[in-house]
Amino acid sequence: MLNEMLNKKWNMELNRNTETFMECDKEPQEAEIILFGAPFDSTTSYRPGTRFGPASARRESYGIESYSPYQDKDLSEVWAADCGDLELSIGDVSLALSQIQEFAACILEKEKLPFMVGGEHLVTLGAFRAAAERYPDICIIHFDAHSDLRDDYLGVTLSHACVIRRCWEIVGDGRIYQFGIRSGDREEFQWGTHHVKTRRFDFEGLEKTLEEIKDRPVYFTVDLDVLDPSVFPGTGTPEPGGVSFEELRKAVTMVCKSADIVGCDVNELSPHYDISGISTAAACKVIREMLLALDKGVR
Question: CATH number of 2-294: 2.130.10.10, 3.40.800.10, 3.30.160.70, 3.30.565.60?
């Protein structure tokens, strides 16, 4: 069943009325970046709803210009294809992660870049497993309000509160770089001091980090709750004291332009907690700026 789904998506045997993220309408065979949604929120610990994030981002992206005055580039010029949402086994966490991993591996095998839109942050583990299998010396750059370094959350090890700890089990010490972190329990912060590199509250030191890992493959994961909830209230676990949109825009652009990104994701948009639509608009612009910065313009 999963192989059939992969083949169907890869060959774009989809209903042509399916919405795509703005201008990400190239044929998958020709595209360099493959966008796909992972609508999953089964382990959300506070407010559920991120499973609606990918579809909301697609729908609302048509209210955002495809042209970026920040980068003087247009998404119509980027070879990106939106393959829609995966049909995930919502009631089975391990199976859903395997489905994500297999689809991301399919993209990587075709030497294209997987760009996943979540969903809760646990979806990162599925895509990262695929990237780490292909690139054993991979590093992670992680933007988030929360450290996500718990060994378990209420006895559950496959939780969005544990996703970076599970990624650490794959790559080990010194290969995970966190920025914007401002929430976690004492044990998480104490454990992280010895195993990951964490910048609390902001993005200071990001440029130095990018220089340090410039020759290494990088998986880039962005939890949108790194933004202050005054800017981005549409998320399941809002955490006051976050960065501004402009700070995040500059940071994601820097990472996508400078690092050797082999996979990335944007997650934790829960649109119905912000009826104004501002949170979804912010998510769309973050995705747009990342896609534009990832495109190197070499054909």
Answer: 3.40.800.10
